[in-house]
Amino acid sequence: MADNTTPTIMKGLEGVYFTETKICKVDGAKGRLWYRGYSIESLAKNSSFEEVSYLILYGSLPNVDALGAFRNKLVSCMALDGKLVDLIKGLNGKMAAMDILRTIVSAMPAFSEKKVFQNENDERIEEAIEIVGRICGIVATIGAVSKNGNYTGPDSTLGVAGNILYMLNGKKPDEKTSRMLDVMMLLHAEHSSNASTFCTIVAGSTLADIYSAITAGICALKGPLHGGADEKALDMMKAIGSPDNTEKYIEEALEGKKKIMGFGHRVYKAYDPRAKVIKAYLEDIQNGSTLEVQTFTAIALRAEKMMVEKLGETKGIWPNVDFFSGPVYTYIGIPKDLFTPLFAASRSPGWCAHMLEYWQDNKLIRPLDYYNGQLDIPYVPIEQRK
Question: Could you give the residue numbers annotated as active site?
Answer without folding.
Answer: 265, 322
